[in-house]
Amino acid sequence: MRKIFSLFLLVAALLLAGGEVFSQAFPPATRAEKRVARMQQATKNVSEPDEYRLGRAVAARVLATTPLVQDPQLQLYVNEVGQTVARKSSRPRTFRGYHFAVLESAEPNAFAAPGGTILITRGLLKLCANEDELAAALAHEVAHVAHRDGINAIAKSRWAGVVAERRVAAAKERGGKAAEMATLYEGSINDVFKSIATNGYGRTAEWAADQEALRTLKRAGYNPAALATLLTKMVEQEKTEKRGIYRTHPPTALRLAKVKMQIKDLQPETQQKVRDQRFKDQKI
Ligand SMILES: [Zn+2]
To answer: What is the value of pTM for the model shown?
Structure first.
């Protein structure tokens, strides 16, 4: 487990070195986004470093049971696409930046840990026919981070306790070791982990993530329609596959119907051929 996490950190460090994060703010545009903005207001007392530490622990829990794909080139590629998307999201910057990693699992799934650690399975990658569809899957996860859906999944009473406890511990230990501090977050980690692995964030949060994904794709130069083509394949897969992303998300056919209604207003993209070739070059 330690070895796997080290590799994960290495991938993350590589990305940090390569990816420059630009700050770009976009005002809330839809009703769903306004609702999200209100939720963000409610959890604004959860600091960015708190969110980062919590997210790191949640990601570690996922990695404890599912290993990373041992292919640095693929990890780097997915990161490059992810960073491109994240920069154009409504939250282009987080405390320690966005990190993306591919999990060695046939189950189609993706996880967005608070603070910007995003994990996608090989099973979901295999469903993607091109880079735009990969970008669509990642943009949906980035939106969960941007909307702080993970943080919002934590019971408010619990979080208040964690913050108080941490202050006491920090005073005692003058900063303390990260591993010791992490134990204080256990209840919150459980809340977030349950949401991303079993319960999901709920329909409103999922519609909002799809809507933001469409706008993010357009801003990043990807084809927003890629979300619809990916969801179309997922509708088929969902008929026989009930695990992974289908367990935590609303029926894919409903997601697809909503997405299709939104796509009409969005313009087509550019540079499709270059991205198609880049995607084909990867060993997925
Ligand atoms: Zn989602």
So the answer is: 0.76
Q: Note whether 208 and 143 are within 8 A (CB).
A: yes
At residue 176, the pLDDT reads 52
Ligand 1 centroid–CA 140 distance in Å is: 6
What are 116-132's pLDDT values in tens digits? Answer: 999 999 999 999 999 99
Rounded to an integer, what distance in angstroms lies between the CA atom of residue 67 and that of residue 63?
6
Neighbours of ion ligand 1 (CB under 5 A): 206, 209
- Long-range contacts at 259-265 (CB < 8 A, ≥ 24 apart): 259/210, 259/214, 259/227, 259/228, 259/231, 260/228, 262/210, 262/211, 262/214, 262/224, 263/214, 263/224, 263/225, 263/227, 263/228
CA distance 209 to 195: 15
CA atoms of 244 and 20, how far apart (whole Å): 32
Domain parsing of the chain, residue ranges: 2-280
Indicate the SS3 state at residue 282. coil
105-123: b (≥16 Cβ within 10 Å) or e: bebbbbbbbbbbbbbbbbb
Q: Tens of pLDDT along 189-214?
A: 888 888 888 888 899 999 999 999 99
Q: How far is the CA of 276 from the centre of ligand 1 (A)?
A: 25
Structure tokens at 95: 């405390």
Give the distance from CA 45 to its chain's centroid: 21
Q: What is the C-alpha to C-alpha distance for residues 132 and 271, in angstroms, rounded to an integer? A: 11
Q: Residue 227 Cα, ligand 1 centroid: separation in angstroms?
A: 12
Q: What is the end-to-end Cα distance of the chain in Å, rounded?
A: 24
How far is the CA of 194 from the CAs of 58, 62, 247, in angstroms?
10, 11, 12
